[in-house]
Structure formats: structure tokens, C-alpha cells
Request: fold
Amino acid sequence: MKSMLQKVAGLAYECVAEVKGEGFEEKYSSHARKLPSMIVHNGLLTTCAFIRSKKNDEGWKRIEEHIKRYLKEIEGKQVDSLVRFFSGLDLMSYRLYTRKVLYFAQWLKRVAEGELKHEEQAE
Reply:
């Protein structure tokens, strides 16, 4: 049986691996590196609304898909809209999901830093 750390880290690695070699790899890497601090400074709901507003940016679009995938595979929640889902939670549940999504975002950041090209490393 895998620990929660192993499950979350494994999912983050799978998500980042999907992006590796794609034309938007550097954007995704940049966005993944910003995501944890955005959640901390702006809140989960505001960050998700921002991500949704960037639906034409493939990097943000994939991050949104990866958060939904985390919710489905790790938390057992099928979510169509992150904003609708998080805005419908009571305060205690919202705070809990903020911590959980932040944990996943930190893993996305770590894996992206190690596995993907960064904008300053672009060839």
C-alpha cells in the first residue's frame, strides 16, 4: 500500500511527464513554479478563477486539468468546474482542500523544476 506522499508525488510526476516535450513545456514549468505561492497569497478560489480566465494558455489549461485529476484520483471527487466546486464548500472543507491542493501544487512545482525546461533554459 502506498503512502499519501507516494500517491501525490507519483501523480505529480505523471502530470509533468505528460507535458515534457510539448510546445508549451516552458510555460507550464513557469506556471507550476508560481502556483503554490499564488494559492498561499491569493487563496485557492481566487487562484482557480485566475487559472480559468487563462483558458487560452495551454500551460494554465493543463494545470487546471491536473488539479481536477488530483481531485478525482486522490480525493475521489469528479469536478467539472474548480471554481464551482470550491465555492460550494463550507469553510472547514475549503480550508482542508486548500491544504491538499497546495500540497499537490508543491509537488508539481518540485517535479517541474527537475524535469522540464525553464524559460531561462530555453534553447
